[in-house]
Every structure is written in C-alpha cells, then in structure tokens.
Amino acid sequence: MFDMDYWRTELPIQRVVIKNYRALKDADVVFHEGVNVVVGDNEAGKSTLLEAINLALRGQLNRRAVQYELHPLLINVHAVSEFIDSHRQGRPTAPPEISIEVFFTDTPEVALLRGSNNSEKTDACGVSLTIGLDEAFHAEFHSYVAEPEALNGVPIEYYKVTWQSFAGASLSAQAIPLKTALIDPSSISNSYAANKYVMEIVRDYLSKSQSVDLALAYRSMREEFQDDARIKAINDDLATKQGIVSDKVLSVAMDTTTRSSWETGVLPHLDNIPLTLAGKGEQNSVKIKLAIEAAESCDLFLMEEPENHLSHTNLGRLVSHLTERCEGKQLIVSTHSSFVLNKLGIDRVMMFNGESAVTLDDLPPDTKSYFQRLPGHDTLRLILASRSILVEGPSDELIVQKGFRQRHGSLPLEQGVEVISVGTSFKRFLDIARLLKLDVSIVRDNDGDPEGKKALFSDYEADDTIHIHIDGDASARTLEPQIVKANGLQKLNRMLGTAFATDAELSDHMEANKTDTALTLFGHADQLEIPGYISDAIR
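^ thats the sequence. predicted structure below, dont judge the formating
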C-alpha cells in the first residue's frame, strides 16, 4: 500500500453521474483523489464506466469525435424498451437521452467550468455531455413515432451531441484542463488492430520533428522500391500486357496516397520480432507502459484490467511500474485480480454494481494493514461471490465441497458460492463482509472450547449476513473426530481402506493425514454424512 500523498493530483474528478449510457441506466459514483480500484461482477458495467468518463472528458469514442460514432446501441436497452412501450401503451414519453456529468474538485484551474448547469442544479465545477434529440428534427421525430407498433428502437439519426461546462459554455478538449488517457489493451483482439493501437500510441509519444523524420524515411523507402531492378523487370513485363488487360500500362508500386502513412505500414517490434508474435502478456504490458509514457502529461489514467495474460511475477512488476510512473496522477483501474486490488490499496476498492460503488474506507486499520502486507489473499473471490463459506484449511474445504455436491448436485462454484481457506484470519474477511453486507458463513473447529471460539465472533452476532458455525461438542475438537462421530468406525474404515479398531485410533490417523484423508473421502462414490455444523453452513 502506498501513501495517498504519493498519488495526490491537483485536478482529480470527484464524482460521475451517468444516465442511459450503454449498460449504465442510472449510475452515480464518487471517486478518491488518488487510486480507485473498481471491481464488480461481469456485465456490471465497469468498462462502460471508464469509457463514459473518457467520453465526457475528451468528447471521443474509439479515438474519434463522438458525433461520428453515434449508433442506437449506445443508449441503454432498458431505457429504449421503456420508450417503445410507452408509445405502444398510449402514454408516450420523451425519447431517452444519454447524460454523462463529471464533477471536479474545486480548484482555480477549473474555475471557468463552475456553474449550475447540471442535473442537480447545484453550484459546482464540471462538464456534461448529452446525446439527445435534436429539435431541428422535431417534425421528423413525430413522423417516426406516428405508428407505435412499428417502433423497434430510437432514431439516433435525429440525435445531436451537446458538450458543455457546468457554466453553460460549449466545450472542446482543449478547454478542459484535466487531461485523461483510457488504456484498454484487452480490447485489441487481432493483429491489425493491435498494430494500429500501438502505432497510435507511438505517434502520440513521438515529437513533431520525429514524426516528420519517420514519414520522410518511409516515403524514401517507398521510392527506393520503385528503383529496384527486380521491380523494374516485373513492371516491364506487365507493360507488355497493354491492350490486353487495359489500354493503359499496368504496373506495381507501393501505395503513396495519404491513407498509406507510416502508421499503417510500420510494425512495432520487440527484439526484432513483430509485437503481435510476442506473448500476449508481453504485448499487454508494452501497450500499458507505452500508453503511460505517451500520455505522461495526463492527470487521469483510466485502465481496464491490467492483469490480462500476465503471470503473477510480471503482474507484480507492472503494478510497481504503475505506482512509479503515475505519481501525482489520479488512477481508476478496473480489475478481477486480488493481487492488483490489494497491492494498490484494499481501502481504495470500489464494489461497483452498475448503479453505485461501495468503498472499503471504513475497514479497521489492522485489517487494512493485513491485506496490504499479504496481497495474495483472495479478496475478490469474497467480494464477487453470491455467497462465501470460509474454512480453516484444505481438508475442511474438500469436505464442504463434498457436502455441497451431495445436497445440491453440483460444486459450490457452479452456483456462485466460493469456499475459501483463510487459516485463522476469519475476522479480517468478516470486516469486509460486514462493510459490503456480503453473505458469508464461517466453518471452524471448536478446539475443545466451543464457547470460547464462538465468543471470538461475538462482535458479528448482530450482522444478518454473517453466520458462524462451530460445533458445541468439546470432545470432537477438530474436523476429523467430527466426521468419525457422524459416520461411524465401520463405514469410514471401508471408505478409507483402513482397519482401525477404535474411533480414537481412526481419528488420530485421519488428523495425521488430513489432506489425503479429505481427498479420499471427497472422491469416494459413497455418501458421506456431513457433520451438522458444516451441513448448516452448506444450506
């Protein structure tokens, strides 16, 4: 974890309010000044959130002015459905419009953006971008909706983009003092797109004189192509076909039109190997680092899943690079990696559900410190699961998995339930569960002191979503004697292929071979009686 002063920027965004933009029908998110780690389930709209921020700050989609990128699918599908239904039911509503508002921290640099021209009519510094019906097409729109049963969408052709400050002034990218960069290497899925993406970053990185030198060198190379003796021989041969394939002379030459610039003809290389032939992890790492270097003057970096295709070691190097190169910037990162989350700051995580983001600022200091020092913990597994069962170790996990499969016919993960081994660090995870109101069950041994172990969790008794499962039989201290008590000596000897004469001997053997025993029982075809306290947690 890094001191937030390290990340301090003079122009942070404070809040974003989004309506009807793609997956986000009505979202309102508050951000920290420095690092913001956005997590959420698939389809929650994390990528859309980053894209919307970039759109409102740069007026661009896919690196082009947004007015040239308008299409019906930009508007939230639920808003479109409501619009269509209202007309078919005879209670027509206005066509849905997209609205993205970005609120800035109040600083002298953004004073000219201050005003009340926002959805809340509050005096604030910020910008808004709206995509709505152009009144110039009022008559055409009414003609379009004249037959409600024929409606199947919104007439995006009649929409216009309004981009202005909260002061009401029209905007250009140059009028916004905060500069932003959206980095999403995961979206580059083919070789041509990957080359184009990287070369666009290279173009941004080069100085004007370097770009001119590269263009001149590329043109010289094309001219040399024409002077090659072999090319001349080929063109001489093609010239003999005049009058056969055309009345004009046919020849081959390199494209010298403006569309054939060096950006399309030059390939990025790593150690003399085209970038697209390098490993996916290396490609993504290069794209991210190069984009950061190219946008060194930016105040805000929006980054989509930096962990893609990277090993744990290389991800660690990349995160360290981010912390070094993004000093003094605001960083908003979406991720599915617990390593990225914990390393950049567990206290800066934002659990995004498509509408709002819950933060972990209120974690107890010792819990924050715990996850910061041990960034390998599966924090995201807990946060993203529909329900979690926390156990002490691998043997407990296997028995819970077996019991779940016996009762529900599938393994827990297939139903969105995570079974996580946390050692004795239950309370650290419960602090997160309490803050986010996560459905979590604890399964642990009583260690011969049931009441004492239950008392350890007394602080969580009032939390409706937290459930503690500890057996009250002090004579069955751990998992193994609990299994013996529930199944009997004869049955377990058969399942384990042993021949012990007493329960105590069998229990001792099982405790001395905890994981092997649990693996054997997990894989055995026979039904295993699951101890009651574990069965209660499986529900």
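DSSP finds 20 helices and 20 strands in the chain.
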